[in-house]
């Protein structure tokens, strides 16, 4: 039922690492609404363009970071970890964590720290309010796009069309429950984990 | 107005407070942040929290990370911002790498693969729900609801369906949203 896991063996040069670092720096600048909103771009870069990360690893990174305590941005650390592991060693994996996390955190941290102090002093300015309000619909579009891309990539983990539909149904049901109720996220994740472990989805 | 006892006492207080907060936040931290910082520690009033959260949301970077930077920075300047950030990330990073190691060892186990598949499907739903929850805030936008929906729908088509690079969507569509909002706000 499950597809044979794709294994990657990479030889990464310094210029590859540099290009990874540069890409994450750039993504950091664009990560309005959270790093997760750039995950569709990460997928395009890491999985489709460079084949540095398999589809399974991409999905597992997001799912593990959601399941673990702490900010979800740690999925980026896991992607760096997997790219390094694909390049052959735990040392490279730790280096991957460093490159990806420093890349994704540094620009946004500098901008936010500086801008938040400025914005706090000038919060009544028309331009500040226009920026906050004008970006809002795009932020929402990015979150919904991420859900869509993640949801459709999950269905590619199985060859069986019916199982794919059950996964989509699970994603939609989980979304509705979280949207409409105050149930703790952890219960919904646990339910998904149990359904998966018993082979029901 | 804030009494001096309702503020972080030191850099290590910031670090450990944010570590504790992060460790409770399975699958997302917003609800935990609000409960810990506003209701329990009272470092922020409800109103301050809402305002800060809006800024944290709109700036690049993860929301909770941004909020930690803003709160740490407000009380202790740059060292405070970095202490809060480190608290939020350090221990959770170690935990998540440990999980990844376990996962690598047992990835071939069909139960583990199934568990991850189920959780990935739920994660997709959680992110969608976050988008839908945020959409409620559009009611207070100076833009008419129909424009907001049109911009959001166009953004979804460009990013999710046409796989358009994000930067063009942010600059083009986001810029359009900002200009439209600017024109409709009172000077």
UniProtKB/TrEMBL annotation, chain A:
Q: Tell where it localizes.
A: Cell membrane
Q: Which InterPro entries match?
A: CHR_Transporter (IPR052518), Chromate_transpt (IPR003370)
The record's annotation in Pfam families points to: Chromate_transp
Main location class: membrane
Topology in the lipid bilayer is annotated as:
Multi-pass membrane protein
The organism's superkingdom is given as Bacteria
Task: Keywords in alphabetical order, please.
Answer: Cell membrane, Membrane, Transmembrane, Transmembrane helix
Looking at the UniProt entry, the stretches that span the membrane are 20-37, 58-81, 93-113, 134-151, 163-179, 184-200
Tell me its family.
Answer: Belongs to the chromate ion transporter (CHR) (TC 2.A.51) family.
Identification of the protein by name: Chromate transporter
Q: Which organism is it from?
A: Massilia norwichensis
Its lineage reads:
Bacteria, Pseudomonadati, Pseudomonadota, Betaproteobacteria, Burkholderiales
